[in-house]
Amino acid sequence: MADLPIDLPDPDLAGRLAGALDVEGKIPRALEALGPIAGREVVLVNGDRGLRARQLVSLGARLTVLEQPDHLAALRAALAAAPDANLPDLTIAAGGPASTGLADASADAIVSFWSGYRGPDPIEIAEADRILRPGGRLLILHDYGRDDVSRLFAPDRPEYTTWSHRRGPFLLGGFKIRVIHCFWTFDSVEQASALLRDGFGETGAALAATLGRPRLSYNVAIYHRTRPEPGPAPEAS
Hints:
single chain; globular; alpha/beta; 7 helices; 7 strands; Rossmann fold
C-alpha cells in the first residue's frame, strides 16, 4: 500500500492504477519543495513495490528504504525487475517508523506514503526526530478527500475527517499541511471505467457511470514538520 493509496493485490490492477496516479508529477514536485529531496540523505518508510523509491531517487535523493523483514525479498525483486534497476544511490534495510535501526542524526528527510505515521504515534515521531539532523524534515503523505476518488471509500476514514482538522492529531502535533490537487488520469473514459469496475466492484461501477472525462480528481495532503531544535540544557544547581 505504500506505493498506492489502496492495497490492490492483483498485480495487473496495481499496475493500471500506478500508471494513472499523478501522471503530472505534482506529488514529487511538492516533496522537493517541502524537503528539499535532491542531493540529501532521505529515508523512505515502507518500500512496497519500489515505485516511490525510484521516484525519490529520480529527484536526486541518496535514499535508504525501510521495509518490514518479511517484505524485503519482494521489494528487492521488484526493484531488480524494474526498467531503471541500476539505482546506485539506494540502500534497502529492515525497519519501520517506530524502530528504524538507523543512526542518530543520519537523515535530512523522512518520507512516508499512505501507510506510515497513521496518527501520528509519539513513539514514531520521537524515532523520526532521533534520526533527523537539525533542520531535518518529516514529510507524510495521506489522502485528503473532497474529490472524486473519496467516493470509493467510507466517508468516515480519518484521512477525510479528523486528521486534517485544526485540532486533529497532525496539526496539534506541530505539523503543517500542504494540499495537492492531483488526478487519476487515463487514456479514455472506457479505460477509467474498467479499472473502477475491476478494482472497486459496485462502488467503482457507480462512480464510473458518472464519468464525463477520463480522469478523477484526487487530493492528497502532505503533513510536514521540521525536527525541533533541542531546548537548552538545565542549569546546574
